[in-house]
Structures are given as C-alpha cells and as structure tokens.
Amino acid sequence: MKVLVTGAAGTIGRRVLFELSARGHELRALDVGSLKNRLRARRSPRQIGWVWGDVRSRATVDDAVAGVDAIIHLAAVLPPRAYEATVEAISVNLDGAQTVTEAAVAMRRPVIFIYTSSAAVYGVTQAQKPPVRPHQPAFATDEYTRAKLCVEEILRNAPLSWVILRLSHVPILGMRMPHRVMFEIPLDNRMELLHADDAALAIVNALESENCRRRMLLIGGGQTCQVLYKDYLAQALSAMGLAMPPDRAFSTQYHYSDWLDTAESERLLHYQRHSFADIMQSVEQNGRRLRPLALALTPLLGPALTRFSPYV
Hints:
Rossmann fold, seven-stranded parallel beta sheet, globular, two-stranded antiparallel ribbon, alpha/beta
C-alpha cells in the first residue's frame, strides 16, 4: 500500500514511518522543511519520499497525495503552543486538515484516511464517574477542540474510508523545557497516558484493519496508564533530577483529561504494550545525558520552576 503520512517528522509520525516501513508499505512523508525536521528525516527509513511544505498549501498537498492509497494525517499544532498561537493553530489544524481531505477526495479513487483527533473533545469530566466512554457527548471548549471536532465532521461527510482516533495524552519521552501549562492541571486530576510507540501501533493497525472503517475509536494506554497528575508529574520531574513544586503552585480548576474506556479499540487494534512504569522508564533513559547537569543545577532550577507558576 502506498501511504502518505503528514506531520511525519513529529514524535508519533516518526514512529508511524518505522512501523509502516517494517510492514513493507511504500511511504511518502509530508512536513515543514525546518532544519530540525530535515535532520530527523535522515534518521528515518531510507526508502521514504519526503515532501517538504505546508499542509495548508493545496499545490504541495496535491503533489504529496498523488497516487496514494492511504493518508495518515498527523500534522497539527498541539497544546501548549495551540493556546499561545491560536491563529496559526486554527489555520493548521482546521484549514490544513480540510486541504488534505479535499485533495484526497479530488483524486476520485478509494482512499483510507486516518485522522488523529483528541480525547480533549469530551471537555472536563472529572466530576463524572470514570472512565470516559467513546460515544459520550463531545463539545468544543476552546479553539483547539473546536478545530478537532470540525475536522471530524468534515471527514464524516466525505466520500472516504475514514477512521477517527481520539488520542489521550502522549508524553514526550525525554527531558523537555518546563512550561507554564504544567501548573494549570490540578494535582488530583485523572489522566491517561499513551506511549508514543503504542500510539503509532494503533494508527498503523487501524490502517490495516477492515473492521475500523468509518469508525471513531478512543486510543489510550489502558488501565496500567491511568494515573493522577501528581504521580505523573512527580516521576517526570524526578527523572530530570527535580523535586515537585508545592501544592499551592497548581490550579484547582479541573482539566479536560481523564481515564478512558479503550476496551473496544484494544480489542480491534491490540496496541497497548506499555505501562505507566514503562513510559517513565523511557523518559528517564532518554534524558540520562542531561540528568547530571540538571542535578548540578537543582538548587537553582527548583525555586525557578516554582516561580514559573502563575499561582505563586
């Protein structure tokens, strides 16, 4: 099968490319041609045809989709940047996805279209008994979730063989710069993590499964990845040699993450391979080169991290 992956240089995209390559698919990859992405492309399977450009450009997208049998659309501006660059996020997340969809329809041939949406479209559900069920009402709470739901509706009305995957939180498997958004989630907020490798496996299995056509599925790590935010953050910071900020540094307003009912998606896709402990181990292993530096700077970084909070 000839497959186009958009956003192919991203965290999930690169893993999707390796999974597809291992299964013998013919690959084409589309992403913006930044230096970072071009360096990542050098570490990708060699047989990939890279197209450098913007998903909002119809000419670029037409070149990228030409002759493909399937499209895996991952290109998006994700939180927290989606909250800071709202205009860009709407343009990429909505207009870009619509451009790719229209180009796929214009080919007038059978095309499988895999779209990665977000479990954030269920809003704040912490007051409800978990888990979130796949067909609970979804609604927009901000521009990011509004764009996701708009694209889902566009796909449902398109003459394509689509699959919509609403993903839970996929953490970066390594050290990253702290962001103010980390303080906007209450410490006792439920959240479900998803290992990037498991996300890629779910996407590729959905592509190859006839039973997933024109269906929406919830994708999360499963019960072994269902944690409270304080447990996730404490272990992630510990992996970087940092201590938890005080409780008063965090919001008390619940966030739109929660535990998910992924029984159906796991039955169909068999993708849940990593536990919360596995995810934290990956974070620690991938960040081990920077850990000595972080430990040496702990006396400075600890107080600085707390002052980063808008609640202190």
